[in-house]
Amino acid sequence: MYCVLLVAYSLMAADRYLFPFLNYDVRKEFGFSVPTIGLLSTIFTLGLGIGGLPTGYLLSRFSRKTVLLLGIAIFSGGTALTTVTTGFWTMLLCLAATGIGMAMMATSMFALAASYFIKYRAAAIGSVNFCYGLGGFYAPILASVFLISYKTWRAPMLAFGLFGFATIVLILLFVRSWFSETHRTAEARKGAGGASTLLNRNSILLTALSMIHGLSMYGFLGMYPLYLRDGLHFPPGTAAGVYKFFGVGALASILCGWLGDRLSPRVVLSGAFLCSAGLGYLFFHGSDSVLAASIMTCAYGVVASSILYVNLAGYHVKAVRGSLASRASGMFVTSLYAAAAFAGLLMGWIEKNHGWPMAGAIQMSLLSLVGAALALALRPSEMSM
Questions:
Q1: E strands along the chain, which residues?
Q2: Mind listing the pLDDT tens digit for each residue in 171-200?
Q3: CATH 3.40.190.10 fits 2-382, yes or no
Q4: I need a surface site. Which of 148, 151, 181, 379 has the fewest CB within 10 A?
Q5: CB atoms < 10 A from the CB of 1, how many?
C-alpha cells in the first residue's frame, strides 16, 4: 500500500518538473519575457504555500486518504487544463491550482510517513522524497519524448494529467484506511519531547530556513532549464539529459534522511547550505560542457533535495509534539513553497538586469550562506528524538 502511494507521489513530483522543462517552448509560442516565464515556472509553489497549513487543518478533520485523493484530482486536472489556456492569466491560474493539489498530497504523505515509521521519521520522509527523485528523473525524459513526437508542449502536459487520474483508481483499489489513517507517532511520542506549540525557537528558525531554501532551490529548478536552452543553447534532449540528474541526486534521500536522524541538525543543515552556496556559484561560472553540468546538477540534487528538503521536513516534525505532526508538516510546506512561488520571477528579474552569473550568485549562493549561519542557532536538545 505504501508503494502505491509512493508511485502516486512520484507522479506529483514529475508534474513539478514538467512546466519548467517546457517553459522554453511556451515562451516561444506566447512571447513571454524571461521574468514572466520564470513566474509561471514556479507559481505552482504559491498554491503549495497557500495549501500547506489549511491541509494540516483538513487532516485533523478528514481522512488522509480523502485529502490525498482530492489533491491528486486537483493537480492532475490543473495540469491537463493548462493545455487549453489562451494567455498569461489563465495559465497562471491553472498552474497555481496544481500547487494547491500538490500541497494536499505532500502534507498527507509527510504526515503518514512520520506517523507510521516512528523511529526513522526523517528516513521515512526520505523515502517519499526518493520518489520525488524518480519523478524528477523520468519527467524530463518522457516530456522530451512527447514534445519531439507531437511537436507541441501541450502533449506532455495532457498526458501527465491523465496519468494522475489513473493513480486515483489505483489508490482506491489498493490502499486501506487502517494504513493511511495510522496515528502511531502521536501515541508513541506522548511526553517524548518537542514543543507544545508551533511558536517555538526551533520551528521559527526552521520556517526561515525553509523559506530561504525555497527561494534558492526553486530558482534553480524553475530557471536552470531555460539557462541550458537559451543561455548555453542545448537542444531539448540534451537539456533533459542534464536536468534529470537533479532527480538522480534526490535518490539519496533515504540515506540522507537516516543520517539526519542521527546527526545534529546544526551540522546537517549548515554544512548542506554551504555546499549549496558553492554549487550555486559554479552553475553559472563553471564549465558549459554537458558532463560538467550533469555532475553539478546531480550533486545539487543530493544537497538540495536529499539533505536539505528531507531534513528540513523531518526537523519541523521533530520540533513539536506528536499531536502537532500534521500541522508542522503543513508549516514546512507553506513556508518553503510560499517563498518558492516567487523564485523564478526573482531570478528572471536579476538575470534581465545583471545576467545569469549574478542571478546565481545572489539567489543561490548568498541566500544559502545566510541559511548556513541561521542553522547554527538551532537547539537540538529541545527537539524530540
A1: none
A2: 888 877 756 565 554 444 444 567 788 889
A3: no
A4: 151
A5: 12
